[in-house]
Amino acid sequence: MIKEITQADYQEAIAATPAGVCIVFKELCPHCKNMEKVLEKFGQLQPAAVLLGLDIQKNPDAARALGAERAPTVCVIKDGAVRRTKTGLMNPKELLALYQAG
Amino acid sequence: MKPEHRYDCLIIGGGPAGMTAAVYAARAKLKAIVLESNITGGLVNSTYVVENFPSYPSIHGMELMGRMREHVDGLGVPVEEVCEIERLELAGEVKTAETDEAVYRAPAVILATGRKPVALDVPTECDQVHHCAICDGAPYAGKRVLVTGGGNSAFDESLYLLSLGVAHVTLVEIMPRFFAAAAAQEALFASGKAEGHTETRVVDLETTDCRLTAAVLQDVASGRTWREPVDGVFVFLGQLPNNALFKNQIELTKAGYIPAAPDASTSLPGVFAAGDIVDKPFRQITTAVADGTVAALSAERFLRCR
Predict the structure, then answer these.
(1) How does pLDDT run across B55-72, given as a tens digit for each residue?
(2) Does B288 fall in a domain?
């Protein structure tokens, strides 16, 4: 389950996340929809990981602060901070590798 | 040990052809499943506006495919998305598709794998090369972009980029003329924010600190090259058939498409083909839908008569 965050609460939400992934997405973006499915499968592999989502169009400043210029961008969160970001498509295994490397 | 599932029919691909096949398979009481490596919708998802699908005068591509998905879901056909098929065996009476999560077996398969965009062949790689204006166009508001290709996709997406506020579009086509519909060409060039170059190709990209600064273009007739300052490149150079899963198992044309019979059958019994992967002169959503219909009805007949 991906919890949507906004400009108002993204800092608090990330700071409260010991380990997880935030996807920066856009409405009507096929690659973003794909990555949402990837995130769901990733969540099954890593049930303890917190899954967050941020709409880049509604929250451009927050997206920029997370280092996301385009959608989809995945931000790996560890110990309350963004450790890595990667833009574009990846499969669940690649996302898992990015998450574990972070 | 992966779980094993048995079906009447495996539908490989969740674009318009595969989703229509799922509708007809369900109505024929076949136990079918759609296996899709991406999300359902296929290339239509990347189409900003569809204006040639009867019943919807104008609809966003993702919205249209979302409605097809709802239709399939309503009929109870399972759909596995982001499903990586590692092995597909089409010979024999029982066909097998092994994904990263499960093994699926069925006596009939419908191949509806579609096509994928041709990549830009230049020596320099950078993150500012895109294949989807809907996905990646917004950051280019106020900036200059290069669009490669001279077909309908290139012109439609260029118009979409201008609607996002892109300052200028340079469109290049290697052939002597553009092939897009006349209306789209007129609309783009009437904007005053676009210029087109035929018989022109992209030979390289220039970057500074990993960011695109210019494209190096070449006039193919004279060989003259010049530097075109741009912030992003959108590539619409056509499509290649997605045949990697079965190219050594069934008969293909030289171009890699499936020469399906009018009943959608292929060179292997029980294997049917539908949509853009089929060798045919026209590839539209409507032709894919028709192919999916024929493939599912033929699969049902094959299963009933075997």
Answers:
(1) 999 998 999 999 999 999
(2) yes
Question: What number of CA atoms fall less than 13 Å from residue B115's CA on the CB side?
Answer: 24
For chain A, list the domains and their CATH numbers.
3-101 (3.40.30.10)
The answer as to whether B55 is a domain residue is: yes
What CATH number corresponds to the domain at position B212?
3.50.50.60
In this prediction the ipTM stands at 0.84
Angle at B290 between CA B287 and CA B295, to 5 degrees: 125
* Residue A42 structure tokens: 């990733």
Which of B235, B258, B289 terminates a domain? The answer is B235
pLDDT at B1: 87
Q: Which alpha helices (H) appear in B83-231, and where do they start and end? A: 133-136, 152-163, 182-190
- Kindly give, in sequence order, each residue whose CB lies less than 8 Å from that of residue A65, ignoring residues fewer than 6 positions away: A10
Contact B36, B16 (CB under 8 A): no
- Set of chain B residues whose Cβ sits within 8 Å of the Cβ of A38: 82
Q: How many domains does chain B have?
A: 2
Asked whether residue A75 carries a pLDDT value surpassing 70, the answer given is: yes
- At A69, is the pLDDT very low, low, confident or very high (cuts 50, 70, 90)? confident
Assess whether B135 carries a catalytic annotation. Answer: yes
Backbone angles phi, psi at B187, to 5 degrees: -65, -40
**Distance (Å, whole) CA B75 – CA B73:** 5
The helix (run of H) or strand (run of E) holding residue B208 is strand B200-208
**Calpha distance B269→B74 (Å, rounded):** 30
* Whole-number pLDDT of residue A102: 67
B62 touches chain A (CB under 8 A): yes
State whether residue A67 sits within 8 Å of chain B by CB: no
A21 φ/ψ sector (left φ>0, alpha ψ -120 to 50, else beta) = beta
Yes or no: say if B61 and B48 are a contact pair by the CB < 8 Å rule: yes
Residues B137 and B171 in one domain: yes
- Give the β-pairing of B85-89 and B95-99: antiparallel
Q: Which residue of B has its CA nearest to A44?
A: B101
Which residues of chain B does A69 touch, with a Cβ-Cβ cutoff of 8 Å? 139
Domain of residue B191 covers: 129-235
Residues 1-40 of chain A whose Cβ lies under 8 A from any Cβ of chain B: 26, 28-34, 37-38
How far CA B82 is from CA of A32, A40, A90, B35, B99, in Å, comes to 12, 10, 10, 8, 10
Report the Cα A83 to chain-centroid distance in Å: 11
Whether B105 is covered by a domain: the verdict is: yes
The letter for the amino acid at A4 is E
